[in-house]
Automatic annotation (TrEMBL):
It comes from Kribbella voronezhensis. Belongs to the carbohydrate kinase PfkB family. PROSITE patterns: PFKB_KINASES_1 (PS00583), PFKB_KINASES_2 (PS00584). Keywords: ATP-binding, Kinase, Nucleotide-binding, Transferase. Transmembrane segments: none annotated. SUPFAM superfamilies: Ribokinase-like. One of its GO terms (molecular function) is fructokinase activity. Residues 6-310 form the Carbohydrate kinase PfkB domain. One of its GO terms (biological process) is fructose metabolic process. The keyword Nucleus does not apply. This is Fructokinase. The keyword Ribonucleoprotein does not apply.
């Protein structure tokens, strides 16, 4: 594979405070007052870094400024081998931030100061996959651009993956948010949700019921739902798998879902399931294997501070 995976969405700086150890000992951030720490983040940006660390050429379409946070983001993305699409760095733009507060178990809650207005979206020849999700898919004016772009890919030989990553502080109405997720999911081959997403978007429904609803459209072939410390389930048209999470000492959960998503895409690519095949040939065994790979990538991220996804070598050394 020579053409990069295309990731579309926000890049921002997480200002993390609280939690075990107060989030002050990570390797890729800057300490602030009251033990807070500024680290590069944003779900799509985290996925892009995760993909690059796992060895996939990756291009990110985003937008951030040249202020101190923007400089930090740029250094982080470039340092990890992520290509930035033209227009992603804009001197007139103020870099967005997310304040992440950790509880005693290391679980994060977020408040956002974000603007989302991406540069032009286009598909490169040979691109195997397009990934998007999180705030970028719901915050205007950029969300409308993403909807149009994904709709234009219907006849293109590319696999589309989506992680809505619901943010109640951005979209507090679950009914309208679910409608938007359903519409966007209908343009994706694979949809990934967390159990928290499910509880917010469709309270009272089981993960399997939600997966069944998403799989009722022609395009969507697979739904994966993460369950925190319990692992994840994967559901396709022909199979259902459950994968348990390994026992670890959790430092915090920041970026764990994004590490999972990048490893899921990387696992599918390694099995030749991206591009024009659009998951055709996804068997029960291959579904189990890629979900297991993703669960273990997320577990590594949970053992260290902030959104710090593993490299392919780290994954191999930890889990074999």
């Amino acid at each position: 594979m020579t053409a990069p995976v295309l990731v579309v969405g926000e890049a921002l700086v997480d200002i993390v405070s609280g939690g075990p150890g107060n989030g002050s000992n990570g390797s890729n951030g800057r300490n602030g007052k009251n033990g807070s720490k500024a680290t590069p983040g944003g779900s799509p940006a985290n996925v892009a870094v995760g993909l690059a660390r796992l060895g996939l050429p990756t291009e990110l379409v985003t937008r951030f400024g040249t202020d101190k946070y923007g400089d930090q983001l740029g250094a982080h993305l470039f340092g990890n081998g992520v290509q930035l699409a033209p227009g992603s760095v804009d001197p007139s733009f103020r870099t967005s931030t997310a304040t992440a507060k950790l509880d005693a178990a290391g679980v994060a809650s977020y408040e956002f100061d974000i603007t989302w207005d991406p540069p032009a979206l286009s598909l490169s020849r040979g691109c195997p996959a397009v990934h998007t999700g999180s705030i970028a898919t719901v915050l205007e004016p950029g969300a409308a651009e993403i909807r149009r772009f994904l709709a234009s890919l219907e006849s293109e030989p590319v696999t589309v993956t989506l992680d809505p990553n619901a943010r109640p502080t951005i979209t507090p109405d679950p009914v309208s948010t679910w409608a938007a997720v359903r519409a966007l999911a209908a343009t994706a081959d694979l949809v990934k949700l967390s159990d928290e997403d499910c509880e917010f978007l469709q309270p009272g429904l089981s993960p399997d019921e939600i997966a069944g609803e998403l799989l009722s459209v022609d395009r969507t072939k697979c739904v994966v739902i993460t369950r925190g410390g319990e692992g994840a389930i994967g559901v396709s048209r022909t199979a259902r798998v459950e994968v348990a999470a390994p026992a670890i000492d959790v430092v915090d959960t920041v970026g764990a879902g994004d590490s999972f998503m990048s490893a899921l895409i990387a696992g599918l690519q390694s099995r030749g399931l991206l591009g024009e095949v659009r998951l055709k040939g996804l068997t029960e065994q291959s579904l189990h294997d890629v979900v297991d790979y993703a669960v273990k990538a997320a577990a590594i991220t949970c053992t260290r501070h902030g959104a710090d996804p593993p490299t392919a070598a780290e994954h191999q050394a930890t889990w074999g």
